[in-house]
Amino acid sequence: MEHLIIPDGYRPRLTSGETQRAITLIHDEFPRQLAARLNLRKIRAPLFVDRASGLTDAPGAGNPVAFDIPDIDAQAEVVQSLSKWARLALKRYDFKLGTGLYASVHTIRPDVHTDNLRSVYVEQWDWEKRIDPQNRETQYLRDTVRDVVTCVCDAAEVVRKAFPALSFRPDRDVYFITAQELEDRFPHLTPAERETEICRLHRTVFLTNVGPALNSGAPHAGRAPDCDDWDLNGTLFMWHPILKRACELSAMGIRADADALRRQLAAAGCKDRRFLLFHQMLLNGDLPQSIGGSIGASRMCMLLLEMCHIGEAQVGLWDADTIRACEEAEIPLL
By Cβ atoms counted within 10 A, which residue in 1, 96, 280, 294 is the most buried? Predict the structure, then answer.
């Protein structure tokens, strides 16, 4: 309840029936746009993987949900991100250069602190694309970010045409800034406050180089050391006009190669991970070079449908005080 924001005079833009149709439209339209622009093919995603495989991680999300499967003598872990599994799938399914995959991911993060933008239940689109080693550079990353933003903006246009009560227009112009530059610009603010300030100024922002410690001694945000290359990654934010704050839509980046993996595992103090199956394959050169990311589906619905609470876009669980406050404000939690 302490994290709940109810803007003065807020009312849903759509009726309950329109909301369901609009959510379905976004879930159909955005991945179609993304697949066409990035040359991706939809595949089926796992709900859980063997914990010993090293194929799942949950930076900043606490302890993943895990359970024993006695019949196969294994401990399963609910997937938090498909980044590693998808990179392995690029190899297993023989994706060619310039092509990739995407999947709908549903996961649980029980340790998350819920608020207007965060829920224990997470639904997202994860994508991964095979690239040439020559594409491991900043310009390729920026061009891909602009492609993703174009898909968001085009989906928003489709939704506005279908539901004239909506008016949100995402800014297509992406402002790029490193995490260190952002800290230097707003040294007395918290990382979340910095994100909001830069989004207030530039609306659509891609914050790069997320993961390593900054000059202040702490990283801007948690980022797995064995997923992205910290020199070639970032987080996409858009300004949320209802909440008047930054809304994180996507974490993405060019994936770590063997050199980046060694460097980042050492920096994170987890060199022991190098003995896991995925990490051994990467260190031995058995995995393709790739770029990929996760895109929050519920947050995109919140943004495009001008909602103030993520519970308006997904069916989740909330504390009694939040439910009561939303009922009093006539905010319909699904």
Answer: 294
250-259: pLDDT as tens digits = 999 999 999 9
Whole-number Å distance between alpha carbons of 267 and 271: 9
Task: Report whether 299 contacts 249 (CB < 8 A).
Answer: yes
Nearest to 205 by CA among 218, 215, 220: 220
Please report where in the chains the tokens 């993703």 appear, as a residue: 148
Euclidean distance between CA atoms 303 and 331, whole angstroms: 15
Phi first, then psi: give them for residue 187, nearest 5 degrees.
-65, -25
Instruction: Find out whether 233 and 210 touch, Cβ atoms under 8 Å.
Output: yes
Pick the closest to residue 236 from 226, 221, 225 (CA basis).
Answer: 221
Fold of the domain built from segment(s) 16-328: BirA Bifunctional Protein; domain 2 (3.30.930)
Model-wide pTM > 0.85: yes
| Mean pLDDT rounded to a whole number for the chain | 91
**Can you say how many angstroms the Cα of residue 11 is from the centroid of all Cα atoms in its chain?**
27
Domain extents in the chain:
16-328
Report the Cα 55 to chain-centroid distance in Å. Answer: 17
43-61 pLDDT, tens digit per residue, is 988 888 777 676 766 554 4
Query: Strand 100-108 and strand 175-178: pairing?
Result: unpaired
- Which amino acid belongs to residue 46? P
Instruction: Specify the pairing of strand 66-69 against strand 100-108.
Output: unpaired
Instruction: Look at residues 221, 203, 229, 230 and name the one whose alpha carbon lies nearest to residue 282.
Output: 229
Hey, is 75 helix, strand or coil?
Answer: strand
Residues near 295 by beta carbon (within 8 Å), at least 6 away in sequence: 30, 34, 124, 125, 126, 127, 148, 249, 250
Which strand (E) or helix (H) includes residue 155? helix 138-162
Task: Provide the CB-side half-sphere exposure for 210 (13 A, CA).
Answer: 26
| Three-state DSSP class for residue 121 | strand
